[in-house]
């Protein structure tokens, strides 16, 4: 980082307070300013063209057997460490994209490696159980010591899944089954007409219901989840879709403090339209699903008041409230679950998760969200004990190192540095957003894709979202000295 930028950053009151506290208190070892990975590179190093000759050759070979048109880079995961990803040519990149927000505690994390090298993990790998029929004797223990320890407030049960899209699809199924059970009576049996009609995809056995999502949302690429995904046409083209409603998501203006009245009016407009759609849509709405931050759709934010209003609407219209925390969950926003920022009066009905959890599924509390008969929510695997065991180790690492607190503190430091750069390069850093949201930060820039490619030439692996946003998705082990490196590299690109 340039001396001018460093001086400006350190003059900011909030950052000065952090520096006075030496970023992490020395009285609490888990907040030590020492690097979490002492053996990671001190800074990025790019020795070849990007992509280099070895990467180009390997990509050509791979393309003969695998679609590589979305290729970012081919990685050497044996050499990647901590916050750094290494390519086949030995170039070392500071990774602030982290496998699309999916690596929580660093490459080659030793605590995770220790969890893998256990008899418990070996059994889970080589004798993978069909969990609905043949769960292992320790499955309850695995869940209680891992996934359920991390459960959102007010939630006591978990339904495990294979991936984020799968988690959302299962939540949709739970919502539909719950809604019809409400209408039929939770203890009532199915009618003969229902049993026959569902076999030909007709009502009443296969009713016309819907899930309401928001414009620019992303909830996955399977059939049900894809019908609620509305971020880019390329995701949806040629795929049949359900006739489900899309409500407007607030289009906030930045800086927030300069547009408070307009933004409040915009959020109120979106809430009113959401309630109208719930009440008037021709296929009754069983649930509303929303991301705390619309990630793939452009890193779009809304205030806690908007989400509080949304929760109130779902309560009075008798629809379920699903919060999709696939990308925002597990500490990325400076709280373990992003919806903790909202201070809801009552918890969501379901919270879906994946990515940084390295496992997937949805949390819930209401026992009526379990179907009234077996095999209604079922598949062979129902998740994977391997991933649940790995999550437990991730959670232990997060707790032992205070990584949620680290992300909140580092995020504030990084945001202040980006504010300084935005003042210096207003044409390149527009609509900076994510204040108070840990390291879940983004901004808009012209020629975004060109910017992302150039970032690799200075040793930064970074991602985009929406049409023009640059999104930061560093790991929870990202610290102040990594922020300094990132800010220095960004200034180099912009100057």
From TrEMBL:
The protein's required cofactors: pyridoxal 5'-phosphate
Single GO cellular component term: mitochondrion
PROSITE patterns named in the record: AA_TRANSFER_CLASS_3 (PS00600)
InterPro entries found in the cross-reference section: 4NH2But_aminotransferase_euk (IPR004631), Aminotrans_3 (IPR005814), Aminotrans_3_PPA_site (IPR049704), PyrdxlP-dep_Trfase (IPR015424), PyrdxlP-dep_Trfase_major (IPR015421), PyrdxlP-dep_Trfase_small (IPR015422)
The reaction(s) this protein catalyses: 4-aminobutanoate + 2-oxoglutarate = succinate semialdehyde + L-glutamate
GO biological process, one term: gamma-aminobutyric acid catabolic process
Gene3D superfamilies: Aspartate Aminotransferase, domain 1, Type I PLP-dependent aspartate aminotransferase-like (Major domain)
SUPFAM superfamilies registered for this protein in UniProt: PLP-dependent transferases (SSF53383)
Swiss-Prot/TrEMBL keywords: Aminotransferase, Pyridoxal phosphate, Transferase
First-level EC class: transferase
GO molecular function, a single term: 4-aminobutyrate:2-oxoglutarate transaminase activity
EC number(s) reported in the record: 2.6.1.19
Keyword Transferase: yes
The family this protein is said to belong to: Belongs to the class-III pyridoxal-phosphate-dependent aminotransferase family.
Entry-linked PANTHER family: 4-AMINOBUTYRATE AMINOTRANSFERASE, MITOCHONDRIAL, AMINOTRANSFERASE
Name recorded for this polypeptide: 4-aminobutyrate aminotransferase
Species this protein is from: Talaromyces stipitatus (strain ATCC 10500 / CBS 375.48 / QM 6759 / NRRL 1006)
Lineage: Eukaryota, Fungi, Dikarya, Ascomycota, Pezizomycotina
């Amino acid at each position: 980082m340039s001396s001018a930028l460093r001086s400006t950053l350190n003059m900011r009151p909030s950052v000065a307070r952090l520096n006075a506290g030496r970023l992490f208190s020395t009285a609490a070892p888990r907040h030590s300013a020492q690097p979490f990975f002492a053996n990671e590179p001190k800074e990025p190093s790019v020795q070849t063209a990007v992509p280099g000759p070895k990467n180009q050759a390997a990509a050509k070979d791979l393309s003969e057997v695998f679609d590589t048109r979305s290729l970012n880079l081919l990685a050497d995961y044996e050499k990647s460490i901590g916050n750094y990803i290494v390519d086949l040519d030995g170039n070392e990149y500071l990774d602030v994209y982290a496998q699309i927000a999916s690596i929580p505690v660093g490459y080659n994390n030793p605590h995770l490696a220790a969890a893998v090298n256990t008899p418990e993990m070996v059994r889970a790998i080589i004798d993978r159980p069909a969990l609905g029929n043949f769960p292992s004797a320790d499955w309850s223990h695995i869940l209680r010591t891992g996934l359920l320890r991390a459960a959102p407030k007010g939630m006591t049960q978990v339904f495990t899944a294979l991936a984020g899209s799968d988690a959302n699809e299962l939540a949709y199924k739970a919502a539909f089954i719950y809604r019809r059970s409400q209408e039929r009576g939770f203890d009532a049996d199915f009618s003969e007409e229902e049993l026959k009609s569902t076999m030909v995809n007709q009502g009443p056995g296969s009713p016309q219901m819907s899930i309401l999502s928001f414009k620019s949302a992303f909830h996955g690429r399977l059939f049900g989840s894809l019908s609620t995904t509305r971020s880019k046409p390329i995701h949806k083209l040629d795929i049949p879709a359900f006739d489900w409603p899309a409500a407007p998501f607030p289009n906030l203006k930045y800086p927030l403090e300069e547009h408070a009245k307009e933004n409040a009016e915009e959020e109120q407009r979106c809430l009113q339209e959401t309630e109208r759609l719930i009440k008037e849509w021709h296929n009754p709405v069983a649930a509303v699903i929303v991301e705390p931050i619309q990630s793939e759709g452009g890193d779009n934010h809304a205030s806690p008041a908007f989400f509080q209003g949304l929760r109130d609407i779902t309560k009075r219209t008798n629809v379920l409230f699903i919060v999709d925390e696939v990308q925002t969950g597990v500490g990325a926003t400076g709280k373990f679950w992003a919806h903790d920022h909202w201070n809801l009066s009552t918890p969501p009905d379901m919270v879906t998760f994946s990515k940084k959890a390295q496992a997937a599924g949805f949390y819930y509390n209401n026992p009526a969200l379990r179907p009234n008969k077996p095999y209604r929510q079922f598949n062979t695997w129902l998740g994977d004990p391997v991933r649940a065991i790995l999550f437990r180790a991730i959670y232990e690492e997060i707790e032992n190192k205070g990584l949620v607190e680290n992300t909140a503190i580092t995020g504030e430091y990084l945001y202040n540095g980006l504010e300084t750069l935005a003042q210096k390069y207003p044409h390149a850093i527009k609509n900076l957003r994510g204040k108070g949201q840990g390291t879940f930060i983004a901004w808009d820039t012209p020629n975004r894709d060109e910017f992302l490619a150039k970032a690799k030439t200075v040793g930064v692996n970074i991602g985009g979202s929406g049409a023009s946003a640059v999104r930061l998705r560093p790991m929870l082990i990202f610290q102040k000295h990594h922020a300094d490196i990132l800010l220095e590299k960004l200034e180099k690109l912009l100057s």
